[in-house]
Design brief:
80% of the residues lie in helices and 0% in strands. It is mainly alpha-helical and 240 residues long. It has one domain: Rhodopsin 7-helix transmembrane proteins (Rhopdopsin 7-helix transmembrane proteins, Up-down Bundle). Helix 3 runs antiparallel to helix 5 and helix 7 crosses helix 8.
Length: 240
Amino acid sequence: MDEMHISLFSNEIYLTSYCIILVLQLFCAGINGVIIIMFWKLSDLRKNKNFNLVFYFSASDFLAAVFEIPYIIYTILKWNPSQLNFDQLVILISSTPLPLQRKVSAIITIGIAISRNLAIFFPAKFRKLEQSYYSEITLIGIAFGVFDAVLMFISSPITRIPNCGTSGCFVGNQFRSYWGTSNMILGFTVVILSISIFFKIKSVGKETLVIKNPLKHCSKFQQESLMESYLSVATVMHVE
């Protein structure tokens, strides 16, 4: 009897979690939708190429939030207070946007961090790479995301798993290890790149206290990059 009560309590927690996640997904889609509309309405944002990756970042989050909603709705509709019994194939298909978006988001975040570092430390070189940089980073992120999604299907055995409340227990152990490790490495890379930006901004801030007109000692690209770094550093620090 006690075990039954524990099971019922656990399943109720799952249902509460599903509802909270659904609300958060809708909120995420709404916020990123507003950002996309801002890029569409404000020509100044579209003209600033340094914010292209920010747009791609928001677009990927928006699409992921929208396409993950069917997965959450399915778990809510199929929820059972006594026992959870989800169809693994449906779970895997509906949760595909999760590994896809996580890797795309991580790669784009690294792309933003690298672009800020290049623009600050090597402005002339960055300007030469700027034309194709943003599209290449996005394509790399999509390629890695598709690879993760395909690998998830290949490495996940189709078996019935009762009382499995999340997509994580439906995928294979090898994929979980690979996915967690790769995302951790990407997140660590973002932190390192972001720290270098902070140190550069801090060093320039110290120079402004000593030099009356520090703009003469910085190139135009460096000045613009430093100003934009203050705006984009919050996005750079976003680690999924």
